[in-house]
Amino acid sequence: xxxxLIQGPGRLEGExxxxxxxxxxxxxxxxxxxxxxxxxxxxxxxLSDVDxxxxxxxxxxCRTERSGSDVLVDPRGAAHWDIPETLMRxxxxxxxxxxxxxSKMGKATLSFPGGCELGPRPIDLHLSALRKLGVSIQExxxxxxxxxxxxxxxxxxxxSFPSVGATENVLLAACCAKGTTVITxxxxxxxxxxxxxxxxxxxxxxxxxxxxxxxxEGVKKLDGCEHRVIPDRIAAATYLAAAAVTGSTLTLTHVLxxxxxxxxxxFEETGCQIDVxxxxxxxxxxxxxxxxxxxxxxxYPGFPTDAQAPVMTMAAVAEGTSIFVxxxxxxxxxxxxxxxxxxxxxxxxxxxxxxxxxxxxxxxxVEAADLRGGAxxxxxxLAAQGETLVSGVKHIDRGYESIEKSLRSxxxxxxxxxxxxxxxxxxxxxxVYQEG
Length: 436
Ligand code: UD1
Prior knowledge:
Helix 12 (371-383) links the parallel strand 22 (365-367) and strand 23 (386-391). This protein has helices at residues 22-32, 48-60, 85-90, 97-105, 124-132, 164-174, 190-201, 233-245, 264-269, 308-316, 334-341, 371-383, 393-397, 403-408, 430-435, and strands spanning 3-8, 13-17, 39-42, 63-67, 70-74, 82-83, 107-111, 136-140, 143-147, 156-158, 180-184, 205-207, 214-217, 226-228, 249-253, 273-277, 280-284, 295-296, 321-325, 345-349, 352-356, 365-367, 386-391, 413-417. The model is unreliable at 427-431 (pLDDT under 50). It is of the alpha/beta class. The strands form six sheets. It has a four-stranded mixed sheet with strand order 22-23-1-24. Strands 2-15-17-16 form a four-stranded mixed sheet. It has a four-stranded mixed sheet with strand order 4-5-3-14, covered by helices on one side. Helix 4 runs parallel beside helix 6 and helix 6 packs parallel to helix 7. It folds into two domains: 3-19 and 231-435, Alpha-beta prism (UDP-n-acetylglucosamine1-carboxyvinyl-transferase, Chain); 22-228, Enolpyruvate transferase domain (UDP-n-acetylglucosamine1-carboxyvinyl-transferase, Chain, Alpha-beta prism). It binds uridine-diphosphate-N-acetylglucosamine. Uridine-diphosphate-N-acetylglucosamine (UD1) binds next to helix 1, helix 5 and helix 6.
């Protein structure tokens, strides 16, 4: 597996275009399966999770082509209703295909997504909602066999928690169901609105996306459409964190500032100045960050769990003590042990992390255990004195388009070291960072 070698500390400078949102692209690609003709999604990020979705659609029989940031899906050849276990394991969020497959094909066979890097990943909310829509589901030996021979029927679905994936699965399943579905306590994330906008552009009738109650009036069929994926608010927050820990001035383009509203106050608390002009955002970071008040992850419009790790990196080198409370996932502090290797002072007790800011990180070998935690280690490496070698980069590649190239374009000294034969240790020389 390749590694990232970072020579810090260094300032970032310049302008970076933020890529399209991974978490929108995946459900949109699943939604394309429902359409009666081809769809073109613009602004799709070049990520391994998008590759996995392309492979799933091709496996199902859809012609799927990628050209730059465009993905074309022609679902007219869809003939299969299963997702192979290897693809389910590669991307646990492949579960979002379930609602679309069962709606389109009247049946679906998937393996159970199981646990993941963030702890157990139950899908009980997805399954109980789909059962209410008329899907019969048998769970045996890690396999989900679903069928809806009579077709899907609109109903009332009240979620006990506003799960993003379960809300998406219900939108996909209910869009072409008979009758009306009312979802209460629906997730309100911008990616839900993006999915509803896409489905409506294809002829769907969905009202209220972005609010807690969504009403889906089932339609007989959907056409294809062209749609532009929203910008990735978490990638944007990560690059802001990179600027913050390095005392830099950085401009991000192609962002939707409204989607960033839950994270911006935290940056401002630390002394960063953020200026917004249309879809451009400029951050000017102070020499030393101040502590932040409590950061509690919550469903949107609360502080996003996906930004917790990169923002914790800021707290780890800020002046004073910051407290984090992770309310969404059970096991989302795997980056903490690695930040400690870089010299951070963080104590975790259950869902709470107490972060005592240190003056500076010092470079060390660290391992990414998950996507956002891995990105946090890269952010920390930029601010660390000396070399930081980040392994487990496949996790980071799931959510950031060539992170090393993006950072290098801003002046950071980061290179990707391709997989080495066992036992061979990379040689680190300053010149390599420029060549990379
Ligand atoms: C999505 C995002 C992920 C983000 C998360 C929360 C995608 C591809 N991924 O994940 O990046 O971190 O939202 O904002 O969009 N839960 C259950 N039962 C269920 C479903 C969820 O108990 O059936 C629990 C989960 O274990 C977790 C919480 O609900 O503790 C939130 O999960 P959910 O909102 O479903 O996240 P995902 O859709 O998996």
